[in-house]
TrEMBL record:
It holds the Pfam family Cyclase. Keywords: Hydrolase. Its EC number is 3.5.1.9. It comes from Paenibacillus konkukensis. The keyword Repressor does not apply. GO terms for molecular function: arylformamidase activity. This is Kynurenine formamidase. InterPro entries: KFase/CYL, KFase_sf.
Length: 173
């Protein structure tokens, strides 16, 4: 078994989408002052590697705490956006740019999740179709094309959450 971390590290001053909150990770307690270490975290819900709930781009859409947990993990594939069809009922990830031209095939495949190199119109359309999306995944090039792997990308259980940073991992047999 091989585990591949698909996540970006979160750190103070890291790049964010224009207009999103600045990331601040600061030491609040130290071993010397409190006998433990504790960090204060301040960042937006779409910081680093993150998942988007439908509510992120669609008013009244499902929020993170309303989505079933099986949307955030399961058998997945890295696929070529030019493929005629995609594997059914599996997560679909793109390491090459994918736009609205793949929408019908992703929806027809009944994908529960999609991510990687998605443009904003595609992301918006996927969310409208009830497909959660993952942004800022790394190391997708380490995953084999068209071969199944287990994906895990659980969000924090934020009440009314529109998105959340995740620790995204792929597990290869």
């Amino acid at each position: 078994m091989r585990i591949i971390d698909l996540s970006l590290p979160i750190f103070s001053g890291m790049p964010v989408y224009p207009g999103d909150p600045e990331v601040k990770v600061e030491i609040a307690h130290t071993y010397e002052s409190h006998t433990w270490e504790l960090r204060s975290l301040a960042f937006g819900s779409h910081t680093g590697t993150h998942v988007d709930a439908v509510s992120h781009m669609h008013p009244g859409g499902k929020t993170l705490d309303e989505l079933p947990l099986d949307r955030f993990f399961g058998v997945s594939y890295v696929v070529d956006p030019r493929a005629a069809s995609f594997p059914s009922r599996a997560g679909l990830f793109f390491r090459e740019p994918a736009g609205l031209e793949v929408l019908e095939r992703v929806v027809a495949a009944e994908a529960p999740r999609a991510g990687g190199c998605l443009d904003e119109p595609l992301q918006r359309a996927l969310l409208q179709a009830g497909i959660v999306t993952y942004t800022d995944l790394t190391q997708l090039e380490l995953l084999p094309l068209n071969r199944p792997f287990m994906f895990y990308g659980f969000p924090l259980k934020i009440a009314g959450g529109d998105g959340s940073p995740v620790r995204a991992v792929a597990v290869l047999e």
